[in-house]
From TrEMBL, chain A:
Domain MaoC-like: 182-237
Source organism, top-level taxon: Bacteria
Descriptive protein name: MaoC like domain-containing protein
PANTHER family, alphabetized: 3-HYDROXYACYL-THIOESTER DEHYDRATASE HTDX-RELATED, 3-HYDROXYACYL-THIOESTER DEHYDRATASE X
Organism: Geodermatophilus obscurus
Organism lineage: Bacteria, Bacillati, Actinomycetota, Actinomycetes, Geodermatophilales
Automatic annotation (TrEMBL), chain B:
Source organism: Geodermatophilus obscurus
Top-rank taxon: Bacteria
Record-linked Pfam families: Thiolase_C (PF02803), Thiolase_N (PF00108)
Protein name from the UniProt record: Acetyl-CoA C-acetyltransferase
Ranges for domain Thiolase N-terminal: 9-276
Upper taxonomic lineage: Bacteria, Bacillati, Actinomycetota, Actinomycetes, Geodermatophilales
SUPFAM superfamilies: Thiolase-like
Gene Ontology MF term list: acyltransferase activity, transferring groups other than amino-acyl groups
Coiled-coil segments: none
Automatic annotation (TrEMBL), chain C:
Protein name stated in the entry: 3-oxoacyl-[acyl-carrier protein] reductase
Domain annotation Ketoreductase: ranges: 207-389
GO molecular function, one term: oxidoreductase activity, acting on the CH-OH group of donors, NAD or NADP as acceptor
NCBIfam families: PRK08261.1 (NF006110)
Highest taxon listed in the record's lineage: Bacteria
Species: Geodermatophilus obscurus
Family per record: Belongs to the short-chain dehydrogenases/reductases (SDR) family.
Length: 285, 428, 447
């Protein structure tokens, strides 16, 4: 296994550009590479901007989804590298799991490590998991597993079946209605660095086959967790599957059900059609 | 040593007629209306140049410039400039909560007199600049060099020039109060007919109260308005039945219309409270005493309770503390945010399951004599300038109790945004 | 409201123009201000043989610091007032003394000067000749009033035997600027208990006064003057005028009471308010009034009833209720009713209004004895052409004619009516009862 420690976060627009021009002719297995950064500090202004966009209160501990923003540039570097078998443009985020092992303080120095694993078969192509682990003081405090679908791609022989099932309650009662504006993608891109063109504008999204720009799945998940602020366990496993893309702008509803033993089931659906954008669970660890 | 407590007297009140949004008071600010209301109270009770212990008031929709709204209104009024003041805000409960705060200080002997009030305008409501534009301007203000200023200005984009209007929606749910109440109305199966009947009664009772001069010493005209603009003395169930539902979108059986919901309204109210001695020394009447009060809140976001159901929780606590039953009142003032709010609250108190499971009571509170409810009309007819409603109710009920004679008791119940409720007992 | 013509006529160029055209030249009237001297120049006091009141007048003038000159003095100084004690005339021959005294004295009268004649009542004269002489004085005074210029006035006080104590208060009123627009009037005094001392600057100190229709115009002026004179004013007006009422009240430091005085329980509500909040009332001014003008041939019942209800019936009902209510109307109470010139002279298009205002006069006269028995008084004040917001809306011609056809050649101000009412409310006006005092500048209408 090759482990590369980067001195700073790579430039994401450059990575997206590199991934775009090198999209053709990829294939093969997942690279056995890990990218890492050490001693990463959270910038308070960056966190505040992220909190505002997602609806979290600015606090001394990080929102469950925030370390993803720190790790994502490394994951992008991994995916944009020629050795990565799937073309980045067109990759769709279909599931995101986060384990918060303990609350992470804003002022902790964090060590990040990312890698790819579990190349899996999917009825419409292949999925791959981009994993991240965040440690503080030598102990893992946070980890995530983001599953991406590449339509039409082929998983290697003998690859396992992709698992996108998640069981939640009936979630019949909406507790909130959100009007998601058409600039929601641009706003989240600014605070997360995820400048994937499918989120930025109708024009750029059309180039990749979407009718309109679509919201970031990570924003939807973060916004739902933000709505449960004050009612979440300190250590928890957060899971979410992204179903229908959330086209911008949209009016959506959030439904939450508390579950026995603590934790929540949740769903974000289109307010009109009821189409499911996100199904999620939160369970104490 | 704990000070002896006494009960605060309600001496009287004043309000300006309530106007429909963007109508008679379209050019009036909160400060304008509150000042006029205080001046009317001063005129009624001869308080020119006098210092009362404290003036407590608030507004729900407030401009940034109104950070010291009540004190500014006092300074513009005929009261002594040496009268202290502070602002409170508990959404639609503001006016009643202000009265409770003043009454408590009087009860503790910290002040001898005080004025509680509230004001709101939906016509002169604050518009905020776009949040990102605001941040740009803040950055610009703190920039020290030309480069920093240019960098700050570089963040400006055309969309930021569109101002943000305040939304009449709960921040955590994104639902308007009406949409929330529509859920409650459906849950409690409150019929359209029952809501319309309550609405008609509100209009007829308010009109009758005006006719018999009940408001002669409770209301002072303002900007050409002499009666509440929303009042429709000739409304009827038949007329109301023609209105289309406006809340409960998508529900084919939606019941809530513009008629049986309160419209957006502008207005202000104020109540003069005092110790008995203070009132007696000035030859001022004691209409009633504020006996006790209680607030409650419900989890309307994740807890499955209706946004406006908190008073249903506050009342049993208040009753228990005062050794009273729901039937021990001569008059009830249940704020008509929506007709269905009143009806759902009454239904909940009579519902054994709700009283047992939600309120933790052995037996339901029971029903009330509806002829004692909102006898001089309420918000459906008068309108509801959020923070001004409490003052309207306190002064009107105190006068009603005074007219009925000594020893009469009244219950006030006001629901508020954020799943809150303020309730109080007055006694003549 | 400015009187453009008066201002023009008193300006440099305008004054010349007005003189050359032979137009009337209305004067700027001397009006009362607290602390101002009673008169602006010395006084002369004459008699016609008898001199029942001479000493009272001299003492009053001396107390007020007014220099009193001998009647024969002829030095150049303009006189502030010419007073004639004409009591004791026995026949027309005695009147020549009056003429002899008045002719040189009135010639010396200064701007806004005062001619005040005091006489015995013709009604209790001992002979027709005596009655004739006493009555003759009325014609004399009214004519002097018409001859005087520069804001000077002439009035007659009728003083029956035994009513001497009632004299000083009314004399002070007629000499002072309070009576600026009261001209050519005859006021009869009665015997009464007049309080010995009175704070002349605040004669109503400690008293509670109710003023109806106090939100604007004459009513607001009444409230201001009563308050200035020391009274706590309970200002009453219809609820619909409550905002203007509150402004007036907050300016003067009184209390506002919104009330429709025609409501069935109006009197009881006002009495309850006075009893609870003030412990009673000393002065009641029935000022509220409305007009609903129409020629009689076009008059409808609604117009007729509305005017009668507010202008007359409410005054009757409230006064009766106050008399009936135990302990509310305090000893020495004063009721002043606002009548109108229309009630005396009649007015085209105002059958309802004039009837109601004439009715007020009848009411006052009928009630006077009963009030006297309680040591109280009831009087009426009848304003003439008073410049208000209402008259400002009149057509120019009507307004100009209305304001000029009087001896002072100008319209009065609301404060002139108010000053007269405030005087009648004073303790020292105890001897004025059942009278109708016109505040009209000696209007040519109904004189």
């Amino acid at each position: 296994m090759a482990r590369t420690v980067l001195g700073s976060a790579p430039s994401m627009p450059a990575l997206f550009a590199r991934a775009a021009v090198t999209a053709r002719g990829r294939g093969g297995g997942l690279p056995d590479t890990r990218l890492a950064r050490t001693g990463v500090r959270v910038e308070a202004a960056d966190l505040a901007a992220y909190d505002r966009v997602c609806g979290f209160p600015l606090a001394d501990t990080l929102p469950a989804t925030y370390p993803h923003v720190l790790a994502f540039p490394l994951q992008l570097a991994l995916m944009s590298d020629r050795s990565f078998p799937l073309a980045l443009p067109g990759l769709v985020h279909v599931r995101n799991r986060v384990d918060v092992l303990r609350p992470v303080r804003v002022d902790e120095a964090l060590d990040l490590e990312v890698w790819a694993e579990r190349f899996a078969r999917h009825p419409r192509g292949a999925t791959v998991d981009l994993c991240a682990s965040v440690s503080a003081g030598g102990a893992e405090v946070w980890r995530s597993r983001s599953t991406y679908l590449s339509r039409g791609a082929q998983a290697p022989e003998g690859a396992p079946q992709s698992d996108l099932s998640l069981s939640v309650g009936d979630l019949a009662r909406p507790v909130a209605t959100w009007q998601v504006p058409d600039d929601a993608g641009r706003r989240y891109a600014r605070v997360s660095g995820d400048v994937n063109p499918i989120h930025l504008s109708g024009l750029t999204a059309k180039a990749f086959g979407f009718k309109r720009a679509i919201a970031h799945g990570m924003w939807v998940q973060a916004r739902a967790l933000a709505a449960l602020t004050g009612r979440l366990p300190d250590a928890m496993a957060v899971d979410g599957v992204f179903r229908k893309p959330l086209l911008l702008p949209s009016t959506v509803t959030l439904a939450t059900d508390p579950v026995a033993g603590g934790g929540w089931d949740l769903a974000v659906r289109n307010a009109g059609s009821g189409a499911e954008h996100l199904l999620g669970t939160v369970r104490p660890l | 040593m704990a000070p002896q407590t006494r009960k605060a007297a309600i001496v009287g009140g004043n309000r300006i007629p309530f106007a429909r949004s963007n109508s008679a008071y379209a050019q009036a600010s909160n400060q304008d209306m509150l000042t006029a209301t205080l001046d009317g109270l001063v005129a009624r009770f001869g308080l020119q140049g006098q210092r009362v212990g404290e003036v407590v008031a608030g507004a729900v929709l407030k401009h940034a410039r109104d950070f010291n709204l009540t004190r500014e209104a006092v300074l513009g009024s005929r009261l002594s400039a040496a009268t202290p003041a502070y602002d409170v805000q508990q959404a639609c409960g503001t006016g009643l909560e202000a009265a409770v705060l003043v009454a408590n200080k009087i009860a503790l002997g910290q002040i001898e007199s005080g004025i509680a009030g509230g004001v709101d305008t939906t016509s002169d409501a604050p518009l905020a600049i776009h949040d990102e534009m605001r941040r740009v301007l803040i950055a610009l203000g703190s920039a020290r060099t030309v480069q920093q200023r240019l960098a700050a200005l570089a963040g400006v984009r055309p969309g930021m020039f569109v101002p943000e209007a305040p939304r009449n929606a709960e921040p955590r749910t994104g639902l308007s109060m009406g949409e929330h109440q529509a859920i409650t109305a459906r849950q409690w199966e409150i019929s359209r007919e029952a809501q319309d009947e309550l609405t008609v009664r509100s209009h007829h009772d308010l009109a009758a109260a005006y006719e018999r001069g009940f408001f002669d010493d409770l209301v002072t005209p303002y900007l050409g308005l002499t009666r509440d603009e929303n009042l429709r003395p000739d409304t009827s169930v038949e007329k109301l039945a023609k209105l289309k539902p406006v809340f409960g979108a998508g529900d084919p059986d939606a019941t809530m219309t513009a008629g049986n919901s309160t419209p957006l309204t502008d207005g202000a109210s104020a109540v003069l409270l005092a110790s008995d001695e203070w009132a007696a020394s000035r030859g001022l009447p004691v209409l009633a005493h504020l006996v006790d009060a209680q607030t409650a809140a419900v989890d309307y976001v994740h807890g499955g309770e209706g946004l406006l159901m908190a008073p249903a929780y506050a009342v049993p606590v208040l009753l228990a503390r005062n050794g009273l039953t729901l039937q021990d009142f001569d008059y009830y003032e249940i704020h008509e945010a929506f007709a269905s709010t009143v009806l759902a609250t009454l239904k909940a108190w009579a519902d054994p399951a709700f009283c047992k499971e939600r309120l933790g009571l052995d037996a339901p509170l029971g029903s009330i004599d509806r002829s004692r409810l909102n006898v001089n009309g309420s918000s459906l007819a008068a309108g509801h300038p959020f923070a001004a409603t409490g003052g309207r109710i306190v002064a009107s009920l105190a006068k009603q109790l005074h007219e009925a004679g000594p020893g009469k008791r009244g219950l006030i119940s006001v629901c508020a945004a954020g799943g809150q409720g303020v309730v109080a007992i007055l006694e003549s | 409201m400015s009187d453009w013509y008066r201002d023009l006529a008193n300006s440099g160029v305008g004054s010349t123009l007005v003189k050359q055209l032979g137009l009337p030249r209305p004067a700027v009237l001397r009006r009362y201000e607290p602390g101002a001297p009673l008169l602006t120049g010395p006084a002369v006091v004459g008699t016609t043989g008898g001199s029942r009141l001479h000493e009272i007048l001299i003492r009053l003038l001396e107390d007020a610091g007014v220099p009193v000159q001998p009647p024969a003095a002829t030095d150049g100084e303009r006189l502030g007032a010419v007073l004639l004690d004409a009591t004791g005339v026995t026949g027309p021959a005695d009147l020549s003394a009056a003429q002899e005294f008045l002719t040189p004295a009135v010639r010396r009268l200064g701007p806004s000067g005062r001619v005040l004649v005091l006489a015995d009542p013709p009604s209790d004269a001992g002979s027709p000749a005596q009655a004739a002489a006493r009555q003759a004085l009325e014609g004399l005074v009214r004519s002097i009033a018409k001859e005087l210029r520069n804001g000077a006035t002439a009035n007659l006080l009728v003083v029956p035997a035994g009513a001497e104590a009632s004299v000083p208060g009314p004399v002070r009123f007629f000499l002072s600027g309070r009576s600026a627009y009261v001209d050519g009037q005859v006021v009869a005094l009665t015997t009464a208990d007049v309080p010995a001392d009175e704070d002349e600057e605040r004669p109503l100190a400690g008293r509670v006064a109710v003023v109806t229709g106090a939100a604007r115009g004459i009513g607001a002026a009444i409230a201001r003057v009563l308050s200035r004179d020391g009274a706590h004013v309970v200002a009453v007006d219809v609820p619909a005028a409550g905002d203007e009422l509150a402004e007036v009240v907050n300016e003067i430091g009184g209390t506002a009471f919104q009330l429709d005085i025609t409501a069935p329980d109006a009197a009881q509500r006002l009495i309850a308010h006075l009893r609870e909040r003030r412990g009673g009332v000393d002065v009641v001014v029935h000022n509220a009034g409305i007009t609903r003008d129409k020629l009689l041939v076009n008059m409808d019942a609604a117009r007729w009833h509305a005017v009668m209800a507010v202008n007359l019936q409410a005054q009757l009902d409230l006064t009766q209720a106050l008399l009936d209510a135990e302990g509310v109307l305090r000893p020495g109470a004063r009721v002043v009713c606002v009548s109108s010139q229309s009630g005396i002279a009649g007015n085209r298009g105002q059958t309802n209004y004039a009837a109601s205002k004439a009715g007020v006069i009848g009411m006052v006269r009928a009630w006077a004895p009963a009030f006297a028995e309680r040591g109280a008084t009831i009087n009426a004040v009848a304003p003439g052409f008073i410049v208000t917001e209402m008259t400002a809306r009149m057509p120019f011609g009507t307004r100009e004619i209305g304001s000029r056809i009087n001896s002072l050649q100008q319209g009065g101000l609301p404060v002139d009516v108010a000053e007269t009412i405030a005087w009648l409310a004073q303790p020292s006006a105890a001897g004025v009862n059942g009278q109708v005092v016109r505040v009209c500048g000696q209007s040519f209408l109904g004189a």
